[in-house]
Design a protein that fits this description.
The complex is a heterodimer.
Chain A lengths: L1 H21 L9 H5 L15 E12 L1 E3 L5 E3 L7 E15 L2 E15 L3 E6 L4 E15 L2 E8 L7 E11 L12 E7 L2 E12 L7 E12 L2 E12 L3 E11 L2 E12 L2 E14 L2 E13 L2 E4 L2 E4 L3 E15 L2 E14 L1 E2 L2 E11 L5
Parallel strand pairs in A: 7-11
Antiparallel strand pairs in A: 1-4, 1-23, 2-3, 2-22, 4-5, 5-7, 5-8, 6-7, 8-9, 9-12, 10-11, 12-13, 13-16, 14-15, 15-18, 16-17, 17-20, 18-19, 20-21, 21-23
Chain B lengths: L1 H32 L16 E4 L12 E4 L5 E5 L3 E6 L2 E5 L11 E6 L5 E5 L3 E4 L5 E4 L8 E6 L5 E5 L4 E4 L4 E4 L7 E6 L5 E5 L2 E5 L4 E4 L10 E6 L5 E8 L1 E6 L2 E6 L7 E8 L5 E5 L4 E4 L4 E4 L10 E6 L5 E5 L4 E4 L5
Antiparallel strand pairs in B: 1-28, 2-3, 3-4, 4-5, 6-7, 7-8, 8-9, 10-11, 11-12, 12-13, 14-15, 15-16, 16-17, 18-19, 19-20, 19-22, 20-21, 22-23, 23-24, 24-25, 26-27, 27-28
The chains are: A mainly beta, B mainly beta.
Chain lengths: ~350, ~350
């Protein structure tokens, strides 16, 4: 009897241990439909095993104001430098197990900042010279590719989840600025010479060096409410090198010279804290507070290394998640800058369409 | 039902505790992780700042005729009538003929020789301060040698211009005088990238190519024959400023080019020209302020927009890349280049 009891106890214990080791408990009904229609409040922080999620996003930002070094809001319209920018991103991730996923992200940026026109006039007794300078600084191009792995707690999600994430931005983008495409047009009428100079600087996207990222996230759910806190830090692996273009105008022709410089990117830290309300099974409302800070690092200017100015920005982001079909979800977020330091403060709309599937699961 | 409530409350308490602990951990992690070791870096707040120094700050005088940086990082300034001074890390050291063997307190220019000695051009000849702090001098035994400019060429030869005795050249065997009545007043001497010596006079430019001299005047493209400043830049151009020309000129492989300084006048007096590390060209003028050219359009700093004085006599650079502007009567201004 004792022996039988011992065997039964061992079997039960091994089952318990096995369950712990195997990780998340098996969901009773685990078909594609159940997993894909899981409301946000019931989902874990990473994908399920075998799940593939492909997302595409578009962010439209209106850069009408910024925060200066003192943290005061500056209306860029007053300086004639307001602009918009377009940011596209694509992500694909895959659930390797129920508690581990891998993914890749990249982006494309398009942005133009047009400075206020500057006119210099020199009138003498014999002639008048007028030079008008228009300046457009454009940033355009593919960003780096971010490869990552995320691991969450190896238990079934009920009311608490915790995940850590690590990855690297691979410098795949051509980050060196292109040669400027400046033009000049001069008109001479009797004793008056009028010259219009259009400066067109062409920056690219990307870090230029590998940048690692470490992140952690926690999620708590109580009924239809969920609270999610996320923290991340990213830092360059090494110093980078880039070029700056200079130009000289002689007889309506520009000559260009490039000079190299070194830099060390700032360490960037972000914290997001969001409150989610699961209004129905297919609709989730959220309010996110997103805080960003970059500090440290340096940039070489003309032979000297200057510390990068500290930048901070706090955005408030109301948004929603709408499940259109089991495989298709739309996310919409609006960003409102609240406070910051030495940073652009754009208002933005961020739309993401996410397609989910289980290609290996019936 | 009671049991459910109890579990529920228990869960709520755990959630609250977990939430608090997680928030504190996140805050601590983020605070620590966002800090990064600072290197020996310059403060961006210092960039773009103007600082005025005058006699109240320890300068021997308020008129600065020349500014030069030596290889050891010392910044030297000359003051007509008040000798010269050395600036090292915030400290001024003055040299006059009462505390040193300086030939005269009327020092108009200086240059560092190949061996590191500092050659001062004075109203009576050359005073030379060696790296071991011993003084030497050279005086023309026949004529008064009022030195206006000194240039040490890449072949180590020393070229000395005077106000009415032409110029002297020392190629290691002593100073040999070259005098022509037409070119007796020398204002400036510069060397181009090919090693040619350009001598700016009141009657155009004399150019020495290593074997012979030739001459450039308004006929060839100079804005005026009274050449007051010549400066070579990093792009292999030679900038030429004059007394009275409407524009400044620069010479490259394609010949002469004109640049209007946009000063609203038909003439301009350019006392000195300098290229900063960023590639901007700076012009020190009489009455037209300090003008800088970023390669596209010249812009001026004058009294009307906050600069201390409209006459600038000299421009130099310290070991940190700060620009120093010697004023006509109000001292010297230090300017840290902006970083944007």
């Amino acid at each position: 009897m004792k022996r039988t009891s011992l065997i039964i106890s061992l079997i039960l214990a091994s089952a318990f241990v096995s369950n712990e080791i195997n990780g998340q408990k098996v969901i009773t009904v685990r078909d594609k439909y159940v997993l894909l229609t899981m409301p946000y409040s019931e989902r874990p922080l990473s994908l399920y095993r075998g799940q593939i999620q492909a997302s595409a996003g578009y962010k439209f930002a209106v850069r009408a104001q910024s925060f200066n070094k003192e943290g005061d809001l500056v209306h860029l319209k007053d300086f004639g430098t307001g602009s918009v920018y377009h940011y596209y991103f694509g992500e694909i991730k895959f659930g390797v197990t129920d508690f581990m996923e891998i993914g890749a992200v990249t982006n494309f940026l398009r942005r133009g900042i047009r400075d206020a026109t500057v006119t210099v006039v020199s009138a003498t007794t014999t002639a008048t010279e007028r030079i008008t300078v228009n300046k457009l600084t454009e940033s355009k191009g593919m960003g780096d590719i971010f490869l990552y792995t995320s691991v969450r707690l190896p238990v079934e999600y009920r009311w608490f989840d915790f995940a850590v994430k690590g990855g690297m931005f691979i410098p795949s983008a051509r980050y060196e600025p292109q040669k400027p495409a400046n033009t000049v047009k001069a008109v001479s009428l009797a004793s008056e010479t009028s010259t219009t100079i259009n400066l067109h600087y062409k920056n690219r996207n990307g870090y230029g060096v590998p940048v690692w990222l470490a992140a952690a996230a926690a999620k708590f759910t109580y009924g239809d409410l969920s609270v999610v806190a996320e923290w991340s830090v990213r830092d360059p692996v090494k110093e980078g090198q880039n070029i700056r273009w200079e130009e000289t105008l002689a007889e309506k022709v520009f000559s260009y010279y490039d000079r190299s410089y070194t830099y060390l990117l700032s360490r960037t830290c972000t914290i997001d804290a969001s409150l989610h309300y699961q209004a129905t099974g297919w609709f989730n409302l959220s309010l996110n507070g997103s805080w960003f800070r970059s500090k440290g690092g340096w940039t070489e200017y003309w032979g000297n290394r200057y510390e990068n100015p500290e930048k901070r920005l706090l955005n408030l982001e109301p948004g929603f998640e709408l499940q259109i079909s089991p495989g298709l979800t739309v996310y919409q977020v609006a960003g409102f800058p609240v406070s910051g330091k030495d940073s652009d403060a754009p208002f933005y709309l961020y739309t993401t369409i996410s397609f989910n599937m289980f290609p290996f699961l019936r | 039902m009671n049991r459910y409530k109890s579990d529920h409350m228990h869960n709520t308490s755990i959630v609250r505790n977990f939430g608090s602990v997680a928030a504190i951990i996140l805050f601590l992690i983020s605070t620590v992780s966002c800090e990064k070791t600072d290197y020996d870096l310059l403060d961006p707040e210092d960039a773009g700042v103007w600082t005025l120094f005058n006699t109240t700050d320890g300068l021997p005088g308020n008129t600065v005729s020349d500014i030069q940086l030596d290889k050891r990082g010392n910044l030297w300034l000359t003051f007509p009538g008040q000798g010269c001074a050395k600036y090292v890390d915030g400290t001024w050291t003055s040299y006059v003929n009462t505390n040193s063997p300086l030939l005269s307190n009327t020092v108009s220019c200086l240059e560092e020789s190949a061996d590191g000695s500092i050659i001062f051009g004075t109203s009576t000849g050359l005073s030379i301060l060696s790296t071991t702090n011993t003084w030497d001098s050279y005086i023309d035994p026949v004529n008064t040698m009022i030195v206006t400019s000194v240039k040490v060429a890449s072949d180590r030869s020393i070229w000395v211009g005077t106000s009415d005795q032409g110029f002297y050249v020392n190629r290691g065997l002593g100073y040999i005088k070259t005098f022509t009545e037409v070119f007796k007043k020398i204002n400036v001497i510069e060397e181009d990238v090919l090693g040619n010596i350009w001598i700016g006079t009141d009657n155009g430019i004399i150019r020495w190519n290593g074997t012979s001299y030739n001459y450039l005047s308004q006929k060839e493209g100079l804005p005026d024959n009274r050449v007051t400043s010549i400066r070579r830049d990093s792009k292999k151009r030679l900038w030429i400023g004059t007394h009275g020309g409407k524009n400044v000129a620069w010479i490259d492989n394609n010949g002469f080019h004109d640049l209007s300084l946009m000063n609203g006048k038909d003439s301009c007096i350019v006392n000195d020209i300098f290229e900063d590390r960023r590639g901007n060209i700076w012009f020190a003028t009489t009455d037209d302020g300090l003008i800088y050219y970023d390669g596209i359009v010249p812009k001026a700093f004058r009294v009307s927009n906050g600069f201390p004085e409209n006459t600038i006599r000299s421009i130099g650079e310290d070991k940190y890349g700060n620009l120093w502007f010697g004023l006509g009567s109000k001292g010297v201004v230090r300017y840290t280049l902006p970083i944007n």
